[in-house]
Amino acid sequence: MPRIGMEPVRRKALIDAAIAAIGARGSLDVTMSEIAGIAGVSPALAHHYFGAKDDLLQATMRHLLSEFGRDGRDALAGAKTPRDRISAIIAISFSQTQFQPETIAAWLAFYVEAQRSPAMRRLLKVYARRLNSNLMSGLGPLMERSRAERVAEGVAAMIDGLYIRRALKEGAPNAASAIALVENYVETMLAAGDAAP
To answer: What residue ranges define each of the domains in the chain, with the CATH number in brackets?
Structure first.
C-alpha cells in the first residue's frame, strides 16, 4: 500500500537524481533506469510518476527555473535601489543552488536539447525573458531604455558564457570571481554613461 504524501518526495528525488545523472554524464543521454537507481526507486515507479524520460527532463528544467525564480524573488525583495536589483540578479545566477557542477551541466545540456526540442526551447525562453525583465528592472531607471536593453543582453550573455567556461574547468566553481567579472562589466557600462554603446 503506497504511503500517503510520498509522491512529492519521490518526484523531487527523481528530479534531483536527473540533475545528478545529467551532471555525471554531461548530456541528456541518460536512462530512466539510471535516474531511478540514483533516486533509490524502481524504474517502474519513475515511469509511474513521470511517464517518458522527456517528461522527467522537462520537469527537471521546470524545477531549475522554479528555483531560479524563487531565489530571484527572495533576492529582489531585499533590494533597496535599482543598482541593488542588478547585483541581486547577478548574485543568484551564481548562487550555491545554481552554480554547482551538476546544475551547470544540466543547464548546458538543456541548452543543447533546446536546438531540437520545442518544449525545451519554450522553457529556456521563459528563463531568458525572466532574466531580462529582472535586469531591466534595475537598469531601466539608471540609463536610457535602448541602452539598458543592450547592457541587459550583455549581462545575460556574460552569465551564460561563464556557465559554458565553467563547464571546461575542473574543480569547484568560483562564484565570487564570476560575480566580480559581471559586476565589473555593469560598473563599466554605468560609468561610461551615454558615450557607451
So the answer is: 61-195 (1.10.357.10)
Phi, psi torsion values for 14, nearest 5 degrees: -70, -40
d(CA 125, CA 127): 5
The string of DSSP codes covering 107-174 is HHHHHHHTTT-HHHHHHHHHHHHHHHHHHHHHHGGGS-HHHHHHHHHHHHHHHHHHHHHHHTS-SS--
Residues 180-195 have pLDDT tens digits of 999 999 999 999 875 4
CA nearest 184: which of 160, 142, 164, 155?
A: 155
Distances, alpha carbon 178 to alpha carbons 31, 161, 182, in Å: 33, 10, 6
Provide the whole-model pTM. Answer: 0.85
Sequence-distant (≥ 6) Cβ neighbours of residue 115 within 8 angstroms: 121
